[in-house]
Amino acid sequence: MGIWNHIELIGGLPTETPRDLAETKEFIQAHADCIDIYSLNPFFLYAGSPLHLHPERHGIRLRQSAGQKHDYFDWDENIGIFSEEFDEIGGLSWEEKDKQISASTESLMRTIEETAPPVGIDYIHINLLMYFYAIFGHQDKALIRKLMKISTARFKPYNLDSFMRPPSYQKHKFRRVLKELPT
Q1: What secondary structure does DSSP assign to 81-145, as a single string?
Q2: How far apart are CA 71 and CA 136, in angstroms?
Q3: What are the extents of the domains in the chain?
Q4: What would the pLDDT profile of 52-62 be if each residue is shown by its tens digit?
Q5: For residue 9, what is the DSSP state?
Q6: Spatial distance between the Cα atoms of 43 and 11, rounded to a whole number of angstroms
């Protein structure tokens, strides 16, 4: 009833099928009234991750040309974004998979935007959210939703070069700027 629901989605997981994508979109649409915020990221295969350490278990085969940067959103910089290249066993080649990851992520993004635009908040707002819950309690979630929307309507975190705006997962489209904090 009063729980803040945050859904994290990953577009283009290994062996993702069109049916998987359709079911995820149906889930978003069916539960829009109870999901408060979404996080959405394209799939990246990180070196040392469980999928990387045991690729066959997850239906993939690693490529030798691993460790290259991939830019799904045409960023100015690819800070910390590294995906190992892989082929799906019995499925898509890396070149096809790379395109599918981008297309799946974009499709999920459109579904979220069309279904229930989320509040433009980030991890930096968790203390504010918890403060509102402490003051008003779980029984007043409607008020907390309104306060979060108002409080975060025009917010510029210290680590971004522009204001955040819904949907919050698009924060990854902004170039991150390292700024010194006041001492």
Answers
A1: -----EEETTS--HHHHHHHHHHHHHHHHHHHHHH-PPP---GGGHHHHHHHHHHH-GGGHHHHH
A2: 42
A3: 6-173
A4: 899 999 999 99
A5: E
A6: 6
